[in-house]
């Protein structure tokens, strides 16, 4: 007897894009954003979330899921207009507002502007998601140029520092900062040396900032992404 399941793929096909940041609109098939069966329960009603890299991938999933839970959304993106407009449409389909911020947050002044524009639109920020990142695969460390190294660190860790610094004065007791990190921060990756290094920096940044914010009763945590997805949480009590 033939097993019909053998006719269907059991994993997503590998897809690679040379240009960074990548475009979700160019992916075929596109990744699933949110389970259609998920029922929102207003866990984030009347909250406002600012999400860097919120136009696609993990960032888009967060935006749509948070919207389904009742939050209004502001997303920061670099140049992927088509992806950003799609995310805005999906958020609005959930009955929530979505502000698009097309900015390069590797500049601290621009990061501050993103916080200010979000406050102007929604009068508050309750959740900051530091999610923007790039990665460039190289088989040998000698192939990692100074330009690539600087871009990876500026995008993946410097922007988190700048945006967190800009948003923090607007957060109230009980509000939250969530940083997207990676399984590579603990296990490394032989072809993503600079990228894995930034993710390790994010994990340590999260631990340190959480301790720093403890007296303010503001929370800071990071989400591991990778084959063994885990939540590495350092919540201030």
TrEMBL record:
Gene3D superfamilies: NAD(P)-binding Rossmann-like Domain
Keyword annotations of the record: Oxidoreductase
Gene Ontology molecular-function annotations: oxidoreductase activity, acting on CH-OH group of donors
Chain intervals with Polar residues compositional bias: 1-23
Span list, region Disordered: 1-27
Coiled-coil zones: none
Pfam families, sorted: adh_short (PF00106)
Family from the record: Belongs to the short-chain dehydrogenases/reductases (SDR) family.
Protein name: Glucose and ribitol dehydrogenase
Source organism: Acinetobacter dispersus
Lineage, highest ranks first: Bacteria, Pseudomonadati, Pseudomonadota, Gammaproteobacteria, Moraxellales
